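Q: Convert this sequence to structure tokens.
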Amino acid sequence: MRNHPFRQVDVFSDRPLLGNPLAVVFDADGLDDATMLAFTRWTNLSEAVFLQSPKDPRADYRLRIFGARGEMAFAGHPTLGGCHAWLEAGGRPHGEDVMQECGVGLVRVRRGGGRLSFLAPPLLRDDAFDEGESLRIAYGLGVSRHDILGARWVDNGGGWRAVLLREGVDLRRLTPDPSVLAGMKLGVIALSGDHADALFEVRAFVFAGGLLEDPATGSLNAGIATWFAREGLAPASYVVAQGMALGRDARLHILRDGADIWLGGQTVTAIEGHVALPRV
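A:
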């Protein structure tokens, strides 16, 4: 067994217990994939990340991102939470911005405004749904087809689809049917009526053998921001609220800077210590 420095951080909140928790394991070069997956499942969190030495000389570190079903090419709250933990533990970037290496390649993370922000990776798939798929989603969410203003893939490595709901639809009263939406990762967006500081509210559903809901989702919101920027559906800068249906209070900050989309949020460390994991 070997002791690894460990932190559990809360992402997209400046206070513990209100954002999306993430497990961060340091000095993970000697861990094999099976151990990283087993540890991730053991934590019962949506994701855990493992900080390793970079393979790309341009990167400051390599981040392996695991969910309960295996390794992920990219995810937003692990990117920000992993970077927060690396910096807090004394990591020093080569340049002004932090350069993270992960499954989709290099992801730039910058500091400013009291938060970290990542440069959204390009969409791997962004086609609109056909009418049959839109009808299926409407039925599965328990809304009318008329209530859906847009529906499309927003996949930048996280496998997300998204639908934009008409103003007036109560996002928190949705009762999704997992049997209808089985196999989907679906983000649902509506104008925020309850938060003066947020323009939109989002819910993120994963229909995998049942219904799971993510409290704050960087990859999904980055994909939505790319969609909205292309079609002029949002201003250059706005805030998203997420997690209210789960008793959380997360905030995600979107900024369009020319052709670039930046997504950021605050992160706070909740647990610090060591975790004992088997040697390879």
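The two ends are 9 Å apart (CA to CA).
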